[in-house]
Amino acid sequence: MASFSTNFRSAIRSLREQWQRAILSAVGILVGSSAIILLVSIATGVQKDVEKQVTDLGVNLLIVLPGRINEGSMFNASMIGISNLAEEDVERVKTVPGVRRAVPITFVGGGIRYGKNTSPSTLIIATKPDWFLMRNMKLHTGRLFGTSDLDKPVCILGGVANSKLFPNGDGLGKRVDYNGAKYTVIGTTADTQAENSLLSMGSFENVVYVPLPYVKKKVGALQLDRIMVQTEPSHEPKSLVKAVDAKLGERLDHETYSVLTQEDLLGLVFKLMGILTWLLTGLTSIALFVGGVGIMTVMLMSVNERFKEIGIRKTVGATRKDVFMQFLIEAIILAVVGGTAGLALSYTACLGLYYLTPVKPMVTIQIVLLSFSVCLLVGAVFGLIPAIRAARKDPVDAMRHE
Known about the structure:
elongated; ten-stranded mixed beta sheet; alpha+beta; two-stranded antiparallel ribbon
């Protein structure tokens, strides 16, 4: 322990004497570690956001998609184009024991307006009243449409859509324009802070709900894009996947649809996000590698410039292990200092993003531990060669060197 403390003090003294060079070495680690922490924190925040959006759909849900999803793939060519789902499939699903409700959903499009206010990002969803029972939707004003409104030009505005079309008030009772038709706003939903979310533009608060039968009467042929299925509380959604799949298979080809739970849907999204995160992390790790090379270069130069110091230490009793430990400790200290500064910088950047942008990074204890572990590893690995070279110096040759 005494030997380690002596080597540690020697390392600190050496770094203090060459503080400009030490700072330049630590900057490389700072850049690399802060980039990785920032990226992973943003990815974690986005993942939490996605999870919230999916869970906000409701509880005990199954989702029927057009197209077959296999082998953990999120995309399938059959999902692009015509959906084979139909109203009769909704009625079939309702007969499955354990199913409480089933409701069709059609994504009609976007481009709703009120006067000069437009919202191109707002999604128009055509559905039926059971959808509101499945989501347990909270109203801000007005009411939800019921069975008596299915053949009427009425609509319900989500919180984000309402604030975009009516920035100075509420849209209740107003008539909005969509595709050449006028829809009367009979209700607006409560905005559950979706505006502050990165995914708010694609959330269920940035939508306008219209009655599916009325839209079908106006448009004519209209395909179903989703069938949302709510199970009884006594039945786990996953336990009904096979039954719902079999019931749909009585009319449809099994390759033309998929039945997923919320966990399945999240798993697909998280798998894609995980691949992208690791890819970007690998790219940003190049900066950390460059920082490690910088430490190694500086330490090698330091060895060449400190021949006499090494010789004196060995002459007064220092062993090869002592010299090795001193130089290794110097490299690790540079990496840890750079990593700590990178953590502080990235945390400050995360706070700025959190309060000033829709991005909500999450700096967790796991991310902090990952940062310090990587910095320790970089310092140890890139400090080995200079430490070994210093330890192998012959004390007589070192003393001769000027």
